[in-house]
């Protein structure tokens, strides 16, 4: 009985940590150079990566000789720096992942809550209810007028800023329209290639439908798998959320590779394709780069540790029941 209570308590704590991590900075990156003196830029040009977007990491800093009322927009500053070597704006990276992040996190939470249920029929029922809510939410958000308002507030702010629309105009869009329009504007912010950009927008739209299809198919497979009492599907309910920190790092590293290997020829300076620093200190031209986990990543890792202990407890319970 105590093990069963502890098992469920660990999962509930892990779910709470996952939810908090969604609203937290997961990784931070900073650029430092002689033209950004530490007296005015103590943290350099700093940005924070969240699962639903990239946000300003610069703070208001008031040395005795100057007064700031608002922090420098370091996302824009970093985009300006990067475009000189032909790098696309940060907002053009991970558009599908950011747009679907709230549904993907909800998907993980449904998996974990189903793992707490003992009977396969109850698991399938819970999965069916949870997945149905996600699909309805996703449909309203992405495909109905005004659906963009169902997205996370931070993500909405990024989209509206990229589109330079008044609030009333922005709120009329559906989520897919807003995502595609934002990607189009971001990609063409410094490099005017309308034909090439439109090709990428069309590919992005197709890829979004494919990813949604894969997500819905995965939902159906989980329901069928637990009904068939397939042991693999049962353990995947917790294994997939355990791997959340791994998924983030792979995604982050993959997009860094893309940015460093798809430099536009219109950049003022020509450099060879390169792999930006994923973890640690690096050097690009006269800039020193820093890339490290933020506290949100620590929350993800802690949730994974909780889930590993919960999985071990569940396995131990299963062995004891067989032995009894």
Written description of the protein model:
- It comes from Thioploca ingrica.
- Keywords: Membrane, Transmembrane, Transmembrane helix.
- This is Cytochrome C.
- The chain has 324 residues and is of the alpha+beta class.
- The protein has eleven helices and five strands, in the order αβββαααααααααββα.
- β4 and β5 (287-293) form a beta hairpin.
Secondary structure topology:
Blueprint: H1 2-22, E1 27-32, E2 45-50, E3 53-56, H2 74-83, H3 95-115, H4 120-143, H5 153-163, H6 167-170, H7 175-187, H8 194-227, H9 231-242, H10 244-261, E4 280-284, E5 287-293, H11 295-323
Antiparallel strand pairs: 1-2, 1-5, 2-3, 4-5
Helix pairs in contact: 1-3, 1-11, 3-4, 3-9, 4-8, 5-7, 7-8, 8-9, 9-11
The spatial strand order of the largest sheet comes to 3-2-1-5-4
Low-confidence stretches at least 5 residues in length (pLDDT < 50)? none
Question: What's the rounded overall pLDDT mean?
Answer: 90
Q: Please give the alpha-carbon distance between the first and last residues.
A: 15 Å
Number of helices: 11
> In terms of structural class, how would the helical and strand content be classed?
alpha+beta
Q: Supply the number of structural domains.
A: 1
- Assembly type of the chains comes to single chain
* Major sheet details: 5 strands, antiparallel
What's the count of strands? 5
Shape: globular
* Share in helix: 55-70%
Proportion in β-strands: 5-15%
Transmembrane segments: 7-28, 99-117, 124-143, 203-227, 234-258, 295-313
Keywords: Membrane, Transmembrane, Transmembrane helix
Protein name: Cytochrome C
């Amino acid at each position: 009985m105590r093990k069963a209570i502890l098992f469920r308590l660990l999962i509930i704590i892990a779910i709470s940590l996952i939810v908090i991590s969604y609203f937290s900075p997961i990784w931070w990156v900073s650029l430092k150079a002689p033209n950004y003196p530490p007296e005015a830029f103590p943290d350099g040009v700093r940005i924070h990566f969240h699962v639903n977007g990239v946000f300003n990491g610069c703070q208001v800093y008031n040395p005795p000789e100057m007064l700031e009322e608002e922090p420098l927009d370091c996302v824009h500053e970093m985009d300006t720096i990067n475009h000189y070597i032909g790098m696309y704006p940060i907002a053009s990276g991970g558009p599908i992942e950011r747009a679907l992040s709230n549904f993907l996190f909800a998907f993980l939470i449904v998996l974990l809550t189903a793992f707490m249920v003992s009977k396969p029929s109850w698991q399938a029922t819970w999965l069916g209810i949870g997945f149905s809510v996600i699909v309805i939410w996703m449909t309203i958000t992405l495909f109905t007028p005004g659906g963009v308002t169902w997205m996370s507030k931070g993500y909405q702010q990024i989209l509206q800023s990229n589109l330079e629309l008044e609030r009333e105009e922005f709120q009329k869009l559906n989520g897919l329209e807003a995502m595609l329009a934002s990607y189009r504007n971001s990609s063409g912010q410094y490099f005017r290639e309308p034909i090439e950009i439109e090709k990428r927008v069309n590919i992005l739209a197709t890829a979004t439908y494919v990813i949604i299809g894969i997500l819905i198919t995965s939902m159906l497979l989980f329901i069928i798998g637990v009904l068939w009492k397939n042991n693999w599907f049962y353990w995947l309910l917790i294994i997939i959320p355990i791997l959340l920190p791994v998924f983030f790092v792979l995604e982050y590293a993959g997009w860094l590779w893309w940015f460093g290997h798809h430099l536009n020829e219109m950049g003022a300076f020509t450099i060879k394709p390169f792999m930006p620093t994923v973890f640690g200190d690096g050097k690009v031209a006269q800039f020193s780069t820093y890339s490290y986990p933020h506290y949100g990543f620590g929350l993800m890792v802690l949730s994974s540790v909780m889930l590993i202990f919960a999985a071990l407890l569940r396995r131990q319970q299963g062995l004891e029941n067989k032995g009894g």
